[in-house]
Amino acid sequence: MSEDNTTGRILGPFNRVEGDLEVRIEVDQGLISRAWVNAPMFRGYEQILQGKDPRDALVYTPRICGICSVSQSAATARAIAQAENLSPCANGELSTSLVLATENLADHLTHFYMFFMPDFARDCYADKSWFCDTHTRFKAQAGEVSREVLPERAAFLHLTGLLAGKWPHSLAIQPGGSTRPLGAEERVRLQTTIAGFRHFLQETLFAAELEAIAELNSEQALLSFVDKCPGGDFAHFLRIADDLNLSAIGRAGNVFMSYGAYARGDNYLFEPGVWDQQNLPLDTGTIREDISHSWLNLHTEPKHPFQGNTIPDEDDSNGYSWCKAPRLQGRVVEVGAIARQLVNGHPLVVDLVNRSGGNVRNRVVARLLELALVLPAMESWAKQIQPGEPFCKQAELPDEAQGVGLVEAARGSLGHWLRIKNGKILNYQIIAPTTWNFSPRDAADQPGA
């Protein structure tokens, strides 16, 4: 390390949403040369759950994360269902997909309007031609979007009350479906709320029909869209992205993974798999968690979550984070909306990544694209609900079994691995999207995505 040209800095903690994050970087001649991501807060849910009735996990795990509590509920319910060898009933599956989609789309909306775009309203961009409009519209707390978007988000999130009783931390999602049945009038309310959110997206975010956004199939089509529909916030973002060259920053690796999103039996709205210049099958049996740079103990080598543990050791001299380093066949993978759409083969995201890789612009485009792809699916699911038919099934919990629950939260792949012995939780391990994307280094010194 050159003392003349290289300096070290610590940035953080970053706590805009939940938890804490700290980044240590080395800067060489004005460019970041190396970085270390540290999660400085120990969560400990694995210890909390050990020895409890497996069904108690349905109460505890939604509290892991305030903005993706439905995802945690769904993952737990699927892990228990697999242990029980139970398939949820059709209404319950539809209801779970609807409430999970509501949470995920609300997250995409919040990310774009509340956390991402306000950064471009800062005074450091005052010399840009787009700054005045951006400042008026997106300035944190004071911009137009605060008055427009927050009521729309709140109205859309009413779906979680209708479908699951409350949000966050609902107890409605169960291994056999949902404990919150819908009547005919409630189904109409469900459809009306979804229709209202469609109107907002089409009028304000896209200035275009959702189907027109879903049909964008290339970078050239995306650029042409800005000329055809210049009035929406999506086009506003794309103009900023072009001016600041956001497609050239935020590069990670180019291997992406998705567990598959919105399952109906063996079918998915977005298929599971791995993308590495092409689609590859996903084998979750090859997942291993490395703790060589974690403040954890007892692992002598990377282990699959079914065999792993989470024992804190703050005195571990090699550790610098409470996070483990999950790897797929020893490889670093990125998860999130961009991974889901690559694996599912959406032509727009495939073309964007083939041209410029995973980057800031392409990740935001993938998030917003999902709004246009998922809401029409929600309209279809709402129509398929059959009032008066069962919403939940029950099964006996075995004394000894194991199960895994894999879902896609807004930020990416979430997995819960459950082992039961003598009717109690023997081991419960969780790999969150943040752990995949912001892991510490592994034994081979590979940083996270």
Question: Would you give an account of this structure?
Answer:
This protein is α+β, with helices and mostly antiparallel strands. It is built from 14 helices and 17 strands. The protein has helices spanning 45-49, 57-60, 69-84, 90-116, 131-138, 144-164, 184-205, 210-214, 219-228, 233-244, 337-343, 347-356, 360-384, 433-437; strands at 6-11, 22-28, 31-38, 173-174, 177-178, 256-258, 261-264, 267-270, 273-275, 279-280, 287-290, 296-297, 311-312, 325-328, 401-409, 412-421, 424-431. The strands form seven sheets. A three-stranded antiparallel sheet has the order 1-2-3, with no helix packed on it. A hairpin with a 2-residue loop joins strand 15 and strand 16 (412-421). Helix 9 crosses helix 10. The protein is globular, with a radius of gyration of 22 Å. The relative contact order is 0.17. The mean pLDDT is 94.
Look at the helices and sheets and give the structural class.
alpha+beta
The percentage helix is 25-40%
Low-confidence stretches: none
Distance between the termini: 24 Å
Number of strands: 17
Précis, in short:
By secondary structure, the protein is an alpha+beta fold.
What is the secondary structure topology, with strand pairs?
Elements: E1 6-11, E2 22-28, E3 31-38, H1 45-49, H2 57-60, H3 69-84, H4 90-116, H5 131-138, H6 144-164, E4 173-174, E5 177-178, H7 184-205, H8 210-214, H9 219-228, H10 233-244, E6 256-258, E7 261-264, E8 267-270, E9 273-275, E10 279-280, E11 287-290, E12 296-297, E13 311-312, E14 325-328, H11 337-343, H12 347-356, H13 360-384, E15 401-409, E16 412-421, E17 424-431, H14 433-437
Antiparallel strand pairs: 1-2, 2-3, 4-5, 6-9, 7-8, 9-10, 11-14, 12-13, 15-16, 16-17
Helix pairs in contact: 3-4, 4-6, 4-13, 6-7, 7-13, 9-10
